[in-house]
Amino acid sequence: MSLIQAIILGIVQGLTEFLPISSSAHLVLVPYLFNWSLDPTQAFVFDVLVQLGTLVAVLVYFWKDLVSIVTSMISGLKERSFDEKPEGKLGWIIILATIPAGLAGLLLKDSVEAAFNSPRLTGLMLLVTAALLVAGELLSKKTRSAEAMTPLDAIVIGVFQALSIFPGISRSGATITGGLLRHFKREDAARVSFLMAIPIMLAAGLLAMVDLFAIPALASFLPMVVVGFIIAAIVGYFAIRWFMGFLRQKNLYPFSIYCAMLALITLIITYVR
């Protein structure tokens, strides 16, 4: 992997992680469309570790929310009251919502890694993302706030997050859709989606660390990971700011159209080549 490739993939990760267009799909398709010859193991480890850059972005953007949530959770533990404070309750529910994706990631790790080498499958999964976004917009009443979330809501949204372990199914798109189908407002569904990403992205990054140190020529590969990490963090922060403002006024249909168009282009190219 070259420095230019690491920079481009860092920008792609930062832009697409929080927009409902599947960052994993873009990290698969960009090298494929540009005919980059990347080592599959290196590419997979790079993709997962660069996500830690966008984890930093979400930590910075939601810093005040996270402090409030963690403080309330600790207070609840001390007082043996887990749902008295809305912020603490939200924290426990977010943890519950990460369980389905965590289990799916552990059980299907080899299948997921193989899927990252299949542009055609990625294209098909982008069509799934497009359909999910349309379903969320059409079927949601958009009346509930994040503080009203229940354990059942968490499990439903968590199952949607589990779908996104495969490239092409947007994690933010799937979880926001799950929130919309439970009738949360767009902005609240997005807020919960991004907070839910924290434990999953952290766990995936830590698991990828094990694979990182097993890669040959680590000394030359590690600087590329660091560059991608830094760029993804900076770009990701501004992507979150823009997207949260977008959701206050507009719907998700433009992202659905984009996913469908990218999917069709990808599928055509995979059959022509």
What does this structure look like?
The protein starts with a helix and ends with a helix. The longest helix has 30 residues, at 218-247. It is built from 12 helices and no strands. The protein has helices at 3-16, 23-33, 40-61, 63-79, 86-107, 109-115, 119-139, 151-163, 171-181, 186-212, 218-247, 253-272. With 273 residues, the chain is mostly helical.
Essential attributes:
273 residues; mainly alpha; 12 helices; 0% strand
Q: Helix content range of the residues, please?
A: over 70%
Which blocks of ≥5 consecutive residues have pLDDT under 50? none
- As a whole number of angstroms, the C-alpha radius of gyration is 18 Å
Tell me how many strands there are: 0
What does the largest sheet look like?
Answer: none
The 3D shape can be described as globular
What class, by secondary structure content? mainly alpha
Number of domains: 1
Helix/strand order: HHHHHHHHHHHH
Strand % is under 5%
What's the number of helices? Answer: 12
Summarize model confidence as the mean pLDDT. 85
